[in-house]
């Protein structure tokens, strides 16, 4: 059986899957990179996937899931730091991105350094989107091992997959001629939940004879209501930020439905585990890195783990 892990995008809400991954490591007493054959992550999920598959000098996983949970707690404000100058010039993100890339690039440099995609301890697939060619763009460690032209640094891959429109500027990734460069944005615009992408990749690589176990981690379902009366007269300006949230959330829920139908048609033989929670408390904003909100997200993660404890035990036995 081939085991696949996928992690949604969601900015600072990556606290939720990071905590679930810590619980899985704690119960299995094994690092995530050893438990799965393929890991896919979009945006913040991509950062998690890359950090958890980065090797240390001895070839062991450099980070545990708990380390990445601390990343959100300790570095979240640096990633989502907005200078007074940026606030003035962006005019509420209407004419410029909301945040400088300096903070996120500094954090990615610290955690991922010069490690190449080909060095990932487990096969990874990280979605991004190429805006000049208008194509989905997948960073694959398998491809990186076979082609030096696509063996990018992990920190570059992480930066590309998390370049959420209106939040961070797009990523200009230097490439080999004749392409010269790729212009990339957050893969969440089409694969915020990368589970279906990972499933398709697994079918291509492993074939139909291999059974597949797929574990999908969400970053919280949005519950904040968009009022009809408020939104009915919105134009481009009014919809700019809410539309991105709708796209990200809608994509995630659609893929969850699709894979539950494909892999869980036999209730006695589950092959798809989805761990997700509703964000009724705290802020569902991707960029709310306040200590208060991170505390709420951690509490929501504990609540989800307690409610899903039997499912986690069942999963850990399969892993």
Verbal overview:
The chain is 47% helix and 14% strand. It contains 14 helices and eight strands. Strands 1, 2, 3, 4, 5, 6, 7 and 8 form an eight-stranded mixed beta sheet that branches. A hairpin with a 4-residue loop joins strand 3 and strand 4. The longest helix is centred in the last third of the chain and has 28 residues.
Keywords:
8 strands, 14 helices, alpha/beta
H/E element order:
EHHEHHHHEEHHEEHHEHHEHH
Strand content: 5-15%
Would you tell me the structural class of the helices and strands? alpha/beta
Q: Which regions are unreliable across 5 or more consecutive residues at pLDDT < 50? A: none
Describe the secondary structure blueprint for this structure.
Elements: E1 2-7, H1 15-28, H2 32-35, E2 38-41, H3 44-53, H4 65-79, H5 84-90, H6 102-112, E3 123-130, E4 135-140, H7 141-146, H8 154-161, E5 171-174, E6 181-186, H9 188-191, H10 195-206, E7 212-217, H11 228-231, H12 236-263, E8 272-275, H13 291-307, H14 309-318
Parallel strand pairs: 1-2, 1-7, 2-3, 7-8
Antiparallel strand pairs: 3-4, 3-6, 5-6
């Amino acid at each position: 059986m081939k085991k696949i892990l996928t992690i949604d995008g969601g900015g600072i809400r990556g606290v939720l899957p990071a905590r679930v991954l810590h619980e899985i490591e704690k119960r299995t007493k094994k690092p995530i990179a050893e438990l799965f054959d393929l890991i896919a992550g979009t945006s913040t999920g991509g950062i998690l996937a890359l950090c958890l598959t980065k090797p240390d000098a001895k070839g062991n996983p450099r980070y545990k899931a708990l380390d990445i949970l601390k990343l959100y707690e300790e570095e979240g404000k640096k990633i989502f730091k907005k200078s007074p100058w940026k606030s003035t010039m962006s005019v509420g993100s209407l004419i410029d991105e909301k945040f400088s890339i300096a903070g996120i690039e500094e954090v990615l440099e610290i955690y991922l350094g010069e490690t190449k995609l080909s060095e990932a301890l487990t096969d990874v697939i990280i979605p991004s989107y190429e805006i000049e060619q208008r194509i989905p763009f997948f960073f694959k460690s398998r491809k990186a091992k076979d082609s030096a032209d696509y063996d990018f640094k992990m920190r570059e891959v992480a930066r590309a997959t998390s370049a959420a429109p209106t939040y961070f500027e797009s990523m200009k990734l230097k490439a080999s001629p004749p392409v010269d460069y790729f212009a990339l944005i957050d893969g969440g615009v089409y694969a915020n939940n990368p589970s279906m992408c990972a499933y398709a990749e697994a079918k291509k690589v492993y074939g139909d004879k291999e059974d597949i176990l797929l574990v999908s981690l969400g970053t919280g379902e949005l519950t904040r209501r968009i009022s009809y009366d408020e939104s009915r007269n919105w134009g481009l300006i009014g919809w700019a930020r809410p539309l991105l949230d709708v796209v990200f959330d809608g994509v995630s829920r659609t893929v969850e439905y699709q894979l539950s139908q494909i892999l869980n048609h036999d209730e006695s033989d589950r092959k798809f585990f989805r761990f997700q929670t509703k964000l009724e408390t705290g802020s569902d904003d991707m960029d709310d890195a306040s200590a208060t909100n991170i505390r709420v997200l951690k509490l929501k993660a504990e609540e989800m783990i307690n409610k899903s404890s039997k499912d986690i035990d069942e999963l850990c036995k399969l892993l």
